[in-house]
Design goal:
This protein has 200 residues and is an alpha+beta fold. The protein folds into two domains: 75 residues, Arc Repressor Mutant, subunit A, CATH 1.10.10; 110 residues, Winged helix-like DNA-binding domain superfamily/Winged helix DNA-binding domain (Arc Repressor Mutant, subunit A), CATH 1.10.10.10. The chain has ten helices and five strands, in the order αβααββααααββααα. The strands form two sheets. It has a three-stranded antiparallel sheet. α1 crosses α3, α2 packs across α3 and α5 packs across α6. It is globular, with a radius of gyration of 21 Å.
Length: 200
């Protein structure tokens, strides 16, 4: 691809795809090195910003995607009046925050922090692809571990988990050390308040 504008090719691919595309897929299908792809992505990102174009290149984790420039959002909304995405409920946000800051975590870990059962919230977040299974914990029953996804990064405009803001409040260390094991949690949680589908 010596005579081809690689950044232009990537822009065309992202425009047609509409969805996030992995850097590895671009590298593999265009038969390029990782360095060539990264340089082309940086070039496209810079061009969009310097030329104040209507689109920007978003990068989150190993994915990249074209998106509208935030500066032009009011004009886009005025013209197209897009349907707003349904916001996450307070219960789902709290559950997502626990997963984001303590990942990978089990459902019981989340419930110990929130103090309520989180089945509905976790399933809702999995369905929205904001969290996903990340293996199983090496303990009794081998419970599922959950972690955030690249879609989570995209949803909140983050490049990586390092961009997460510092939590306002943290659980005291002595309380963390005192958390019971999985078997004990199973005995504690059923007595807590149950989360209903209406709160998700």
């Amino acid at each position: 691809m010596d005579d081809v504008n690689i950044s232009g090719v990537i822009e065309a691919i992202l425009f047609v795809a509409g969805e996030p595309v992995t850097i590895q897929d671009i590298q593999k299908n265009l038969e390029l090195t990782e360095l060539e792809v990264i340089q082309a992505i940086d070039e496209l990102q810079t061009q969009c910003l310097e030329q104040k174009r209507g689109i920007v290149l978003k990068r989150f984790g190993n994915h990249i995607q074209l998106a509208t420039c935030p500066d032009y959002a009011p004009y886009v909304e005025k013209m197209l009046q897009p349907v707003q995405k349904q916001s996450l409920s307070q219960a789902a946000l709290e559950t997502l925050a626990v997963v984001a800051y303590r990942q990978p975590v089990t459902r019981l870990d989340v419930e110990m922090v929130r103090g309520v059962k989180c089945d509905y919230s976790i399933q809702s977040l999995v369905n929205k692809q904001l969290i996903a299974e990340a293996g199983r914990k090496d303990t009794v029953g081998r419970p599922i571990l959950y972690a955030t996804t690249d879609r989570f990064l995209s949803h909140f405009g983050l490049t990586s988990l390092q961009d997460l803001p510092e939590p306002i409040l943290s659980l005291p260390q002595e309380r963390e050390d005192a958390l019971p094991d999985e078997a004990a949690k199973e005995q504690i949680i059923p007595g807590n308040q149950t989360e209903t589908a209406e709160t998700i």
